[in-house]
UniProtKB/TrEMBL annotation:
Residues 4-51, 132-178 form the PAS domain. Signal peptide: none annotated. It comes from Lentzea atacamensis. This is PAS domain S-box-containing protein/diguanylate cyclase (GGDEF)-like protein. InterPro entries: Biofilm_reg_signaling (IPR052155), EAL_dom (IPR001633), EAL_sf (IPR035919), GGDEF_dom (IPR000160), Nucleotide_cyclase (IPR029787), PAC (IPR001610), PAS (IPR000014), PAS-assoc_C (IPR000700). PANTHER family: BIOFILM ARCHITECTURE MAINTENANCE PROTEIN MBAA (PTHR44757:SF2), DIGUANYLATE CYCLASE DGCP (PTHR44757). Residues 181-233 form the PAC domain.
Length: 669
């Protein structure tokens, strides 16, 4: 059996197909040499690294064969299957096959053009005489007149210098084996235009097997090459700024770590960028973002800077010491602070907060990014516009963050999440008109984590996308269970989910398959999230509202320029931020503001709900100002979703009794 096992390992190591085994999180436990070659990392250094980070696009769970476009570029077919508690990957490089498919198409097109125009680029090399004969058509394709004296030396001078060694190696190999060959190269024509040619050829040998001549064809594939390059660019480039995106950054960082590199990572967040959007609109904001990105890049030379999303950037500094990295961070901070905004027509001043984390052998890209994020949080907490270096005593916070994500993942898989319904009550009658659904973590573990503990952590990872879909699905299932049309739910949508282009279709598919009237479901989007992702918020709200869903702007009034946003967002209602409500009986300013909000809402045909209603006196004050619906601990505490669904009736429920709930309880969940 030992001999058989040894044979199996030898066969796998010599195989052209890449094989790998990872744990459930995608960390490499084993891979063969073929996969190491695809990853560009020695096998012994690949172990423990994240396969999805080294090879973006691979499935992270068992899945049928899918195609992945890898750096290089290479076309790969990847299949993931379960192997006990682990995952097994089979990776096949199909680039040659894809190229041959493309070749067939190009050759067919070339034949059609040859029939119409008589153009076919061919060449023949007499090896014994070392003389190359080029067809007139090929000479014209190269930018020369027919009959031009054109030898291999001149051809070599026109070929892109990075491609010439590959051509020479390919020809040398073909002469030794007598086989067919192909290569693609760039050429700078005499007119200064760069073209891309795909060449196919074969070697002719005599009876002794000695090569006597080689002949082939050349096809101009510039256009298809540009399309291919554009696909690669789109996969790893931020469309607004043209900088590399998060995917490109994590791949570069993981590659550096896999090769035992050391250095530093900077994470930068523009402090007051929202003011530009508020004052001048998103078109101007986009222009300023592009200009800022260019200014930052100009200070970095050839070092990698990526836009992570929103107003956040990251810089990888391989080999940089702490002192060097701090100097780079200060230089970037000065570039942002000195950025001229006066000509843009806004007095807003933009500054940048920076987190700096060192990295070295043994680190993972997730840990490095988390450390830099923690340092960035510290910069924000200390007053912004500063650089903070990650310190080892922050590790406890990192562990807590990772632990929270682990608990959330387990809760999603094992039923540890629960929804509670908080009633929205008609102030004049005490009738419950609907419920806002609030998420709770009930996994039985200590310490207890409230929404404020786990939701911000989830929103900084892709896990929030799964959480939001779970909440939406659970809410719709509950509406199916209780078909009473008076039962209505509002669910909260995170800013990250707004950016998910498939979420709107997911909601409509769930409603359609469940047979639930769309008007029974409402989505609440915080004003901050909507403004930060305005285009995405408008797209989602338009899609769902046209289907009949309710769209509410939550925490209305909390952001600068709140009333401006009402022009752009196709919403059906607003929730008045609790800061205006908590002192409504005693503050004239709050009363004036709430009255104005109500009048505007009525004029636009929007519903208005007051939050943080915690005392009977607030109810009376709100009713006098024209507020019809309220929400808060005085009107009803959150109760488990099953109790909401199982209730036979929705009576006034004593919500307007004289019981006073302390302000510290709040309706701030």
């Amino acid at each position: 059996m030992t001999r058989v096992t040894s044979y199996c390992r030898t066969v796998l190591d010599r195989a052209d197909v890449g094989y790998a085994v990872t744990d459930a999180r995608g960390n490499l436990l084993w891979c063969n040499r073929a996969l190491g070659a695809v990853l560009g990392v020695p096998v012994e250094q690949a172990y423990g690294r994240s396969l999805p980070a080294l090879l973006p696009g691979v499935p992270e769970a068992p899945a049928p064969t899918r195609e992945v476009l890898a750096p290089g570029p290479k076309w790969l077919e990847v299949r993931c299957s379960r192997l006990g508690d682990d995952l097994m990957y089979e990776v096949v490089d199909v680039s040659v096959w894809r190229d041959r498919e493309l070749t067939v198409t190009q050759e067919a097109d070339a034949l059609r053009r040859a029939q119409a125009l008589g153009r076919m680029g061919t060449w023949e090399w007499s090896i014994s005489e070392d003389q190359v004969t080029w067809s007139d058509t090929l000479l014209e394709m190269f930018g020369f007149a027919p009959g031009t004296a054109f030898d291999f030396e001149l051809y070599s001078r026109l070929v892109h210098p990075d491609d010439l060694p590959m051509i020479e190696e390919t020809l040398d190999a073909a002469l030794k084996t007598g086989s067919v060959f192909t290569y693609t190269h760039r050429m700078l024509r005499p007119d200064g235009k760069e073209r891309v040619f795909e060449c196919f050829g074969e070697v002719v040998v005599d009876d002794d097997g000695t090569p006597v001549r080689a002949l082939g064809t050349a096809h101009d594939v510039t256009q298809s090459s540009r399309v291919h390059d554009e696909l690669v660019r789109m996969a790893e480039q931020d469309p607004l700024t043209g900088l590399p995106n998060r995917r490109a950054l994590t791949r570069a960082l993981e590659q550096e770590l896999a090769n035992n590199g050391s250095g530093a990572l900077l994470v930068l967040d523009l402090d007051n960028f929202k003011d530009v959007n508020d004052l001048r609109g998103h078109a101007v904001g986009d222009r300023v973002m592009r200009m800022l990105a260019s200014a930052l890049q100009s200070r970095l030379g050839d070092r990698l800077i990526a836009r992570l999303g929103g107003d956040e950037f990251a810089v990888v500094l391989p080999g940089a010491s702490l002192e060097d990295a701090s100097g780079v961070a200060d230089n970037l901070k000065e570039a942002v602070a000195g950025f001229p905004l006066a000509g843009i027509g806004t007095p807003a001043r933009i500054t940048v907060s920076t987190g700096l984390a060192e990295f070295g052998p043994g680190d993972s890209w997730e840990l490095v990014l988390a450390n830099a994020d923690l340092a960035l949080y510290a910069s924000k907490a200390a007053g912004r516009d500063r650089v903070t270096v990650y310190e080892p005593n922050h590790y406890a916070d990192t562990v807590k963050r990772v632990s929270v994500l682990d608990r959330l993942r387990s809760a999603l898989a094992g039923g540890g999440l629960a929804l509670y319904g908080m009633p929205m009550v008609e102030l004049s009658t005490g009738t419950t008109l609907g419920h806002e659904l609030l998420l709770r973590l009930e996994d039985g573990q200590e310490p207890y984590l409230g929404p404020a503990d786990f939701l911000p952590v989830a929103e900084r990872s892709n896990l929030i996308l799964e959480v939001d879909r779970w909440v939406l699905s659970t809410a719709i299932d509950a509406l199916v269970e209780e078909p009473d049309s008076r039962l209505r739910f509002n669910v909260n949508v995170s800013g990250r989910t707004l950016e998910d282009p498939d979420f709107g279709g997911f909601v409509l598919d769930k409603l359609g398959s469940a047979g639930v009237a769309p008007g029974r479901l409402g989505l609440e989007i915080t004003e901050t999230a909507a403004v930060t992702n305005l285009d995405a918020a408008v797209t989602l709200a338009t899609q769902l509202r046209s289907f009949g869903c309710r769209i509410t702007l939550d925490d209305f009034g909390s952001g600068f320029g709140s009333f401006v946003h009402l022009k752009h967002l196709p919403i059906t209602g607003i929730k008045i931020d609790g800061e205006f409500v908590k002192g409504i009986e005693t503050s004239d300013a709050d009363a004036v503001l709430v009255s104005g909000i109500v009048q505007i809402a009525n004029g636009l045909g929007l519903s208005a709900v007051a939050e943080w209603v915690e005392r009977p006196s607030q109810v009376e004050a709100l009713k006098k100002l024209g507020v019809r619906v309220g929400q808060g601990f005085h009107l009803g505490r959150p109760v488990p979703l099953r109790d909401v669904v199982n209730a036979e009736r929705m009576p006034p429920n004593g919500a307007l009794s004289s019981r006073v709930v302390g302000a510290e309880d709040g309706a701030r969940s």
